[in-house]
Amino acid sequence: MFDDDNIIVGLEIGTSKVCVIVGNQNADGALNIIGIGQSITSGVRKGEIVDAAQAEECVRNAIVEAEHRYDVEIRSVYLGVTGGHICGFNNRGVHPVVSADREISEDDVQDVIKNAKAINLPAENTVIHAVRQHFLVDGHDGITDPVGMLGARIAVDMHVVHGNTNRLQNAVRIVKGLQLEVEEVVFNGLASSLALLTNEQKELGALVIDIGGGTTDYAVYADGVIKYTGALALGGDHVSNDLGHGLKVSLSRAEKLKKEYGSALVDDAMKGRTLTITNELGLPLKTVNVEHLQRIMSLRLEEIFQIIAADLEQAGMTDYPRAGAFLCGGCARAPQIAELAQSVLQMPVSPGQINSISGLESALNQPEFVTAIGLAKYGSLKTRKREGKSSIAQGIKGVFGKFLQRS
Description:
Helices cover 35% and strands 30% of the residues. The chain has twelve helices and 19 strands. The longest helix is centred in the C-terminal third of the chain and has 25 residues, at 290-314.
């Protein structure tokens, strides 16, 4: 039996599945995965709740599986969120240094951070994250800690992630309906990045793309901090829908064909090849052209990468990912998807590998579990910061407390 007071739980309520990752911290503070629970999702579309009762039952099933299988009691979770309504942008706060000797104090730092957070969002939106990037003192940038420096004017750049309050609150209420506390709400794209990227990759610059069932989340890191985030209401389910329409087969049949014969690029060996689909009695139903199947799939996946590429270019982020792009999520399993992404994004692309996390190999080697593992990693980082608050003051800080209290 594990110490329930020491466990950290990441919960992803995805379009295709609910995933619960249970972890604890090693003596050196690193995250160790000790359990997993999952359930096929109902009541979720494009990453958002559309039927609360169905979704709550799916979450309950995944929680119960993790608790019973690994003999733990789950009391609270770090909850992942996604959806087309979530977006991120960079904002700068400015504050004059008013002390007579012009020495920057901790109060000055807190004031400039407050100014950076004082942004005009739509009335229906809530800030999920306000992530500190770096400080500027009298125009000199790249400063990580300005306390004790001399200057007349201090500024801070922050990356702000926000989303529709009610749509986020739907997921929170489901969790609270199960008598569980939500420690913090975390954007899935940020969580996936925490699970995959090394410190060196964050410094050099990297793009993480998480293609799930109903959404695609992405995040850009550079100079050790997050530079940009985005979310699309497009994912693997849209590939299945396209196949269903294009091949004139049921959605369940399209999903099966996608997994068995799909590819992100048309395989030359499949040209001219056909499949005979049978009915429940084993009798021939229709013939499917495999090349046509793969072309449909390739076009939809190409569209997803094209949208991301256009968004990054518009935001001026194209040159930041010098370490390349890393893929995760269920669609990362698609054959040749890295090659397709590389041709569209014009940068090296590879499958993401879990970094600095130990434990269950059955969880660590699965691209569809990356987000939930990243949520647990986020929780472990927060725990470490609480334990050493005086020495670790920098880092990611969610600002969702008031929202959770209202839920």
